[in-house]
Design a protein that fits this description.
The chain is an alpha+beta fold and 259 residues long. Helices cover 28% and strands 29% of the residues. β8 and β9 (226-234) form a beta hairpin.
């Protein structure tokens, strides 16, 4: 294995440890006074409040083993997550984004759950290429996604997504983040097109540590009063310095259970 690949793999493991292994967001539509005032039943155009799930209900709609083909799903334990208190940034406006990227729970949810979802490498993928670098990347083509479900009272879910969008725009040129005592430079935040639920938003985030760069994916999907947050890192891409695809299978599976 090349020294550069080894170094990048070490960096990837550090970032993964912080964000995934050791370690919410739409505008409100204005009500219009356009209803038929002549109706005897006085029907209102206002939508009913979205249901706030209980802790037990949230557990039922959280991902479980078998929900995502080719992935291993497990409950996130104390060593798999980071608290918001353990994440600091050098720009106050970027605090919300830093928390979400590290998998910390955002705001004050009524209930929340976390799952660790790891993709299984394709069998024989590392044997299909005669190129050593390509074979190495294929062997470590493993994406780990920390999935957090949070349900909020009132407009908390909508405000969470809105706040994250604002932070991403204001911090797109970068900021410095420290988690678990390790400092990381967020170099760039680029918005990606994602779909799902009532509202969805996603980004590719470029991170620099000790001169090496890697990328992470951050996606949030809102379904009613519940927000699903996905923070993902691919070990092979981090080792090679390349990119990787959104964890679409994980996002789609979770969105389907929330629908």
């Amino acid at each position: 294995m090349r020294p550069t690949a080894i170094r990048r793999t070490a960096v990837a493991a550090t970032v993964m440890s912080l964000a995934l292994l050791t370690a919410a967001c739409g505008s409100d539509a204005a009500d219009k006074d356009g209803g038929d005032k002549g109706k005897a039943d006085g029907a209102s155009s206002a939508k009913p409040a979205a249901k706030v799930l209980t802790a037990a209900e949230l557990e039922k709609v959280s991902l479980a083993q078998g929900d995502v083909k080719g992935h291993k799903v497990s409950k996130a334990g104390p060593k798999d997550a980071v608290s918001a208190d353990g994440v600091t940034v050098d720009k106050a406006a970027c605090d919300v984004f830093g928390d979400a990227l590290m998998g910390a729970k955002s705001g004050s949810p009524a209930a929340s759950t976390q799952r660790k979802v790891i993709s299984e490498p394709k069998k024989g993928a590392d044997e299909d290429s005669a190129d050593l670098d390509e074979a190495f990347e294929a062997a470590f083509d493993i994406t780990t996604t920390l999935t957090t479900l949070s349900t909020y009272e009132g407009k908390g879910a909508e405000e969470s997504l809105s706040g994250l969008r604002t932070a991403a725009t204001g911090c797109a040129s970068g900021f410095t983040l420290t988690a678990g005592g390790t400092k990381q430079k967020i170099v760039k935040i680029e918005e990606e097109q994602v779909k799902g639920g009532d509202d969805a938003v996603g980004w590719t985030v470029t991170i620099e540590s000790e001169g090496d760069r890697t990328t992470m994916k951050l996606v949030q999907v809102r379904q009613g009063a519940t927000v699903a947050s996905f923070a993902a890192l691919n070990l092979g891409a981090a080792a090679s310095g390349g990119g990787f695809e959104m964890p679409t299978a994980v996002i789609d599976a979770q969105a389907a259970k929330l629908a």
